[in-house]
Every structure is written in C-alpha cells, then in structure tokens.
Specification:
Length: 396
C-alpha cells in the first residue's frame, strides 16, 4: 500500500509541507504553474542546507502582505481558481478547519471572522499547492508521527501568545495528532496543523514497510536540530487501512421513540459515521437510552451540538480512540434473474488493500423493492444477489 508519512520532528508549516512534497518528487514546475495561476504570487524553489541536511525551500513572493480577508473571500479565491474538484474540496476544507478554530478562539461566527496571517496570499499558495501535490501522488494512506509544536511565545496580529498559538491548539484538539514540545519558538503553524489534520491519520511510530522516497521541506527557523519536515513515501505491508475516530455518548431518559427514530437521520446528515441507541435503566429506576455516535474528530463538536439540540441532553461524552482498522469498500451492480425477469442489485464489496475480498452485502432497499415486485422472500433475494456477486468475483 502506497503510504505518505509526515515526520514533523521540527514542526510543520504550510511552506514546509509544500517544499517537502516537491522534494519528495512532486512536479515543481506543474505545482508552481498551478499556484501562480490561482493566486497573485510568484514562487521560488531552491535547494538549501539546514544543519547539514539538504532540503528544498519554497518562498512565496506576495504583492500585498497586509491583506485581511473574510472566510467567504478565501473560499471565492479558491473556487475562482478552477482547480481539480478534489483539490478545491480539500483546500476549502483546510481553510474551514482554520476558520472554525479561529472563530471559536475569538468567540465570533465564522462569517464575521477576518483572517490576518492565514488570510494572506502566501497561505493560500501553500494550501493550494500542498493539496494539489498530495492528490497528484495518489497514495492510499497518509500518516503523521508525533508533532513538535515548539515552545516559548509567538508574536501575532493579536499580540504575544504562548506556543502553540490558540488557533493551532484548537485545531490540534480535534485532530487526534500526538504532540510534544521542544524548543523556544513556534514550530507548528495553524496552516501546517490544518493540513496535517485534514489529510493525515495519527501514528505513534513509522509503519512497517519499505521506504521508497524521502523528501525534506525546509523551514525558516534556525534551530539546534534541523528545521526541516521529513516526508517519506513508503510501501507499507499492512492489508487493512486505519482511520482515527471518536465515540460520542450521552444518556437520555425523557426522549420519545419518534424523536430517537428521527435522530438517526439527523446525526448521519451532520457527519456521523454510525449511530447506535441502547436501552438502559437510569437512576431511580427510570427507563432510558444511551446514544452512541462514531465520528471523525473534526466533526465531533458539530455532531455534539446537534445531539444536544435534538434530544435536550445537557452533556456529551467524548471517548477518543487511537485508531480503528477499516476495510476498503466499493460498490458494484449485479443482475439476478427471478422467473422471467432480470433485476439489478447494488452490492457493497469490502476488501483489504491487496484487493482480497472480505465480505459482500447486498443493498437492502434494492432487495426489498425486488421482493415486493416478484413475491420472493427478502432473505432469498439477498442470498441470490450476494451469491451472484461472489460468483462474478471468483470467475476473474
């Protein structure tokens, strides 16, 4: 499995990530053209040496370094750039992570927030270029080892702040990334934290596998250890993918069955990956329910708010998990014949990263519709669809 591994032992910033990806092998000319076509900047890429380690350094030269923008203005710039769909989606998501963190720190709606440092053209260039480079690499997995956030204090548009800066801290709180502090200056910026949060799953160590390529992205700091971000492209040996999740829980004892039934759909639309409700006996012998929600860390606060809004609960517990193993999934249509009629059924195929099929399940709604049309029991329709899918796979 092709895996991209970030090692931020000396922190990370937007330009370090971009430089490291170019050093790893991303096409510098193509990325430069994409950035300069998207933002009013010029890009300079050069080789440098940091404490004896050769690295790539990227400098974004801007024409207006004091520009303050709203979140909507940033999004409009990204959309107007006519980037590939997946790059546009990722760049917007990265700035949303930054924006929501800044909005929470400053206690104001995202729509009223104005960006200072991260609203400038160089931040736009770093994010767009990094998103473009990562998508072009077509890796199957992205990991990040523990991040050195630095130490001391940092100057910002809002004054002198402790490291990590409040917005960076807020981003990290929902990321699942492991951190440590070493040094006397800021080493992890909000842009770097947001890019790693969006793309990478946390890993406490390097995964087993073979190193294919190594890249070093240079930072601006002069530190005792090399101020570089190491990025490795690896062929990892695990056959199951990982992702980082959180489990949200709350107890309710005064919610009707109708509200609970509606809750499933409301939470899934808000970003939940799965919802389960367990009957329980509460204090004083009252009957109630425990609501469990599985979600990505970046979605947890939004889902918790919806859970409170829908049920009236006054608190939601967060149970962080290191990671979960997951099967890859793909959809396929199969045709089954019942009597003289042929029906199409969608099936979900679970497989590992080596493409070995682990499980097949027929889509319930398709099977129920066919059962009603032809009078065959639902369980028989499901059996035939899944058997047909297995037979098709075994013939290959």
């Amino acid at each position: 499995m092709r895996t991209l591994v970030f090692e931020p032992f000396s922190g990370a910033s937007g330009d370090m990530i971009l430089a490291g990806l170019i050093d790893l092998g991303a096409d510098r000319r193509e990325i430069t053209e994409v950035i300069e076509a998207s933002v009013d900047v010029s890009v300079a890429v050069e080789d440098v040496t940091k404490c004896g380690i050769r690295a790539t350094d990227v400098h974004i030269h801007t024409k207006d370094s004091t520009r303050i923008r709203s979140f909507e203005e940033l999004i409009d710039i990204i959309k107007d750039a006519k980037l590939p769909e997946e790059v546009e989606k990722s760049a917007i998501a990265v700035f949303r992570i930054i924006g929501e963190a800044e909005a929470k720190v400053h206690a104001m709606p995202l729509e009223q927030l104005h960006f200072h440092e991260v609203g400038q053209d160089d931040a736009l260039a770093d994010v767009i270029g990094s998103c473009y480079a990562i998508h072009k690499m077509k890796v199957e997995n992205i990991l990040c080892t523990p991040v050195n956030v630095g130490g001391g204090s940092v100057r910002s548009a809002h004054g002198t702040l402790p490291v990590p800066a409040p917005a960076t801290t807020e981003i990290l709180s929902g990321s699942g990334l492991e951190i440590h502090s070493s040094g006397d200056r800021e080493l992890l910026t909000p842009t770097g934290a947001a890019l790693l949060t969006y793309f990478a799953d946390p890993s406490d160590q390097l995964p087993p596998g073979k190193i294919m390529t190594i890249g070093y992205g240079a930072g601006d700091a002069e530190t005792a250890m090399p101020n570089v971000l190491r990025i490795m492209l690896m062929e990892t040996t695990g056959v199951l993918s990982r992702d980082h999740m959180e489990v949200l829980e709350t107890n309710v004892d005064d919610v009707t069955g109708e509200v609970l039934g509606n809750l499933f759909e409301a939470l899934m639309e808000t970003g939940a990956k799965d919802v389960a409700i367990t009957p329980a006996t509460m204090k004083k012998g009252r009957t109630g329910h425990i609501i469990h929600v599985i979600a990505h860390p970046e979605d947890s606060e939004r889902i918790a708010r919806e859970l409170i809004r829908q049920t009236g609960t006054l608190g939601v517990r967060i149970l962080p998990t290191k990671h979960r193993f997951i099967a890859e999934r793909k959809m396929k249509n199969v045709n089954i014949t019942i009597g003289k009629q042929t029906f199409q059924v969608a099936v979900k195929i679970a497989h590992d990263t080596s493409d070995e099929v682990l499980h097949i399940s027929a889509e319930f709604e398709d099977c129920r519709r066919i059962s009603q049309e032809c009078g065959l029991p639902l369980k028989e329709v499901i059996r035939r669809a899944e058997e047909k899918a297995w037979n098709d796979i075994l013939k290959k």
